[in-house]
What does this fold into?
Amino acid sequence: MNLDATTIEKIVKSIVKELDSPQDNAACYGEDGIFEDMNDAVEAAFVAQAYYMKQPLALRRKMIEAMREVMLKKENMETICAMAVEETGMGNYEHKLVKQKLAVEKTPGVEDLETAAFSGDEGLTVVELSPFGVIGAITPTTNPTETIINNGIGMLAAGNAVVFAPHPRAKNVSILCVRLFNQAIAAVGGPKNLIVTTTNPSIETSNILMAHPKVKMLVATGGPGIVDTVLRSGKKAIGAGAGNPPVLVDETANIEKAAKDIVDGCTFDNNLPCIAEKEVIVVDQVADYLIFNMKKHGAYEIKDRGLLDKMVEEILPEGRLNRDFVGKDACYIAKKFNIDVPEDTRVLIMETNKDHPFAVEELMMCILPIIRVDNVDEGIELAVELEHGNRHTAMMHSRNVEKLSQMAKRVQTTIFVKNGPSYCGIGAGGEGYTTFTIAGPTGEGLTTAKSFARIRRCVLKDAFSIR
Ligand code: NAD
It folds into this structure.
């Protein structure tokens, strides 16, 4: 058979394309990014990322757009949020819809990767943000789907592949998100397996992920245990850990508004967000009026000290958080303790001292302790103490600019919201983009695509300076 040069070129090109495609790699037998074996998942993500690196940025943008679209579809949004509440047994469906929409719409994409340039007599130097490769991302039960959406968009926008290790209690809904993302990416011609996970997540599978040599970065969103583990891994790691956000109210604040903001913030998704108000510190002079106004917005005050002791015993048995109460609404908790509360009760409040377990521990449920202080300076110091150096989130209601500034400097949190509910800090009703991975311990802050990228310098000697 005689083949002309054009035909030969066509055949060679098609073979090279086949070899280049991750679709045909032996490791890629997971369907829609779901693998039985963690090692297979990592291998598939590795192959997919190598292929992804060769694709144009235009495809990246198209994929990110498709990922947003699929998650915004009404039926997907509703199924995911209902499943998240049902599977984890935590949170509030309506609020999960808000969080999900926020993650989809306000997570930055490829535009986040800004290039810097230096030019002069000696040429042109560009500084660009380049992917790490395969990222292992460990996600929490409290925002299971929002974290996958937020991390998925940010990590892929930066050119990476990601292997998710969800909490076993959020397994099915996490798998659904990974599946939908893979289908959306495939529909616009993107590679398979840039986002993968396993059918049976466990501590063992997470350990395989964290130790795998092909995983170049670890991102942990969760409690102190998992953050410590990734920081000890010897790999580049981002730790987004626990918070215990205090909210301070001083005598200059708009008390009626502060009361509403605090109840709105602390009851959002049944207090699951790590940024949500976990204890109130209020200057004595305005404390009664604040409590009076909080009651107008659905707070129910518990004054019986014996009952409070019983609640501590059951919610924090031997000092350990009883997960049965985490992410539960106020009426559920009240019922468990035979407290007869109005149906529209949103949060159970109680006055405590500063050492009370409800003030010291991160509860993540619709319970909010209130602590009186003599003056704002004492309040600021107590907020610092109760934040435990997490460098996470704090709120303050005040009209005194000097004291707001003093609090910001002392508390050193990644997010500091002034005169608003906590969720303003992640772009819900406040300016700025969103994240569901707030990296206080490792300092990336409100993570975006650039947090998941390596900074690289590319130098051209003696040319392309056109000034
Ligand atoms: P968690 O620490 O129990 O679990 C988080 C994830 O880590 C899960 O996927 C879990 O399976 C995994 N994990 C935990 N210990 C592990 C181990 N030894 N080995 C391997 N994997 C392990 O937390 P959670 O209850 O799911 O989430 C709530 C916590 O996360 C709270 O403390 C909250 O403040 C924090 N959080 C922080 C942020 C943030 O952005 N900083 C966001 C959400 C939640």
User: Anything to note?
Assistant: Residues 5-241+446-457 form a domain with the Aldehyde Dehydrogenase; Chain A, domain 1 fold (CATH 3.40.605.10). Residues 35 and 163 are 10 Å apart (CA to CA).
